[in-house]
Amino acid sequence: MIVETDGYIELVQYLTEQLDVFEEKVPASEQAPFTVREQLEESLSDSIMRVCQQHDMDKDVRLDIVREADAILYDLEEVLASVLNTHPSPRQQEFINEFTGLVKNLLDDRLQRKVAS
Question: Pfam families, per this entry (predicted)?
Answer without folding.
Answer: DUF3802
